[in-house]
Design goal:
8 strands; six-stranded parallel beta sheet; 8 helices
Amino acid sequence: MKIAPVKTPVVAKRMFPNYVWDIATNNKELYLTFDDGPTPEVTNWTLDILKQYDAKATFFCIGANVEKHPDIFKSIIKDGHTIGNHTQNHIKGWKTKTKVYLKEVKDAQTTIYSNLKNLNASKVTLFRPPYGQIKPKQGKKLIELGYQIIMWDVLSFDWEQDLSEEKCLENVISKSKEGSIIVFHDSVKASKNMMYALPKVLDIFSKKGYKFKSLP
């Protein structure tokens, strides 16, 4: 069941101005993000498609998945994409005590940095809360620790099992504009819709002169 809208309302962005919802620009630029990887069945495919369009993206990685698939994680870095923290075990902020939540983020950060050794990678300061769930106190603490909390402008809803592939594509095509941060998932659950929509999104917007960038 959809709780959040495809397009984040302006009022929501104004309620939480310390979170990043989109990138202010007049240029034809879009910001693709991928949550929940790395995943063997999906992430490598995603990297190949992005490469075909010379597109850069941001991957919000689950620490436990980085531990399981370090080579795929390193491929993301080597392809020039940006990494973000998505907690160690993909927990729900609303149901988690702040102390436990912060430890989850710290554990994921430790995992990420242990796999960044010998790679020319920048410091990881981007964080996206799983499910978009984060308590104000959790967000405040993370910002104090130097994280940028990245939300979104457009949700593809690729993980929704009852959503058609065509509707997933329409969600992105109809709602994205200059500076939009778009959410996809490089997960098995989302793969059917994402693998249908992503190449078409890249093709359609590339033909309109858009560039796909990783988050700064």
